[in-house]
Design a protein that fits this description.
Blueprint lengths: L12 H25 L4 H89 L11 H25 L10 H19 L3 H30 L1
Helix pairs in contact: 2-3
Length: 229
């Protein structure tokens, strides 16, 4: 007995499977070509503008990050250079300062020692000068005591002159009264002389001092007139 007719027995499934993608591809190509040929809509333009703004914002953010990174690197480099130069500068100054201060300290110690010796010598000389007492000298030992006193004075003078050579500050202890009096003497005498004269006497004194000059000028004028003739 013949079986019922089944259409699936005469349909090739491989042919159907291969035909479906081809049909789908043709459909998509048709839709794509249709969308490419038409102008973009407002929604598409808004979407593109939004995408561009987002990209610009992202680029701006990256630029700000790079600027901050560059500023941080420049600050680190500046501080590094400052550290190096400051260290070298302070090493030079401190080493030089220590050498100078050590030399000054050594010189100050030597000066202090020399000053202590000078102070001791001046004190001893002062004590010897103070012990000189002429009233206690006897007639028999007068010459001996006088020689001893003169020797003490001479030694004190030598000690004083040596201290003055070492310490210039001692020169201020003895003002040059002789020079001041010599310089101010003529001025004081002249001021006293002029202040004691009256106006008439000063006029006569001026005439007496200037009449030879006036006569000489007059004679010169007469000679010039005679020579011109």
């Amino acid at each position: 007995m013949p079986s019922d007719f089944d259409q699936s027995e005469f349909v090739d499934s491989d042919v159907l499977t291969a035909a479906r993608p081809a049909v789908r591809a043709n459909t998509m190509s048709d839709s794509t070509s249709g969308s490419a040929s038409r102008p973009p809509s407002r929604e598409e333009l808004d979407l593109r503008v939004s995408d561009a703004q987002q990209q610009l914002a992202e680029l701006k953010r990256k630029q700000d990050e790079l600027e901050r990174e560059r500023a941080a690197l420049e600050e680190a480099r500046r501080r590094r250079v400052e550290l190096q130069t400051g260290r070298e500068e302070m090493l030079h100054h401190l080493a030089r300062g220590l050498v100078l201060l050590e030399e000054a300290e050594l010189k100050s110690r030597r000066d202090a020692e020399q000053m202590a010796k000078s102070l001791t010598g001046l004190r001893e000389s002062l004590d010897k000068i103070r012990t000189i007492n002429e009233e206690g000298w006897s007639a028999e030992a007068y010459n001996v005591e006088l020689t001893r006193a003169l020797t003490a004075i001479e030694n004190a003078r030598m000690e004083w002159n040596g201290a003055r050579l070492k310490w210039p500050v001692l020169d201020g202890a003895l003002p040059s009264a002789t020079g001041e009096s010599a310089a101010s003497g003529p001025a004081k005498i002249q001021g006293h002389f002029l202040g004691a004269q009256s106006f008439g006497e000063l006029c006569r004194l001026g005439f007496a001092l200037t009449w030879p000059v006036a006569v000489a000028v007059l004679l010169g004028a007469v000679l010039m007139v005679l020579l011109r003739r």
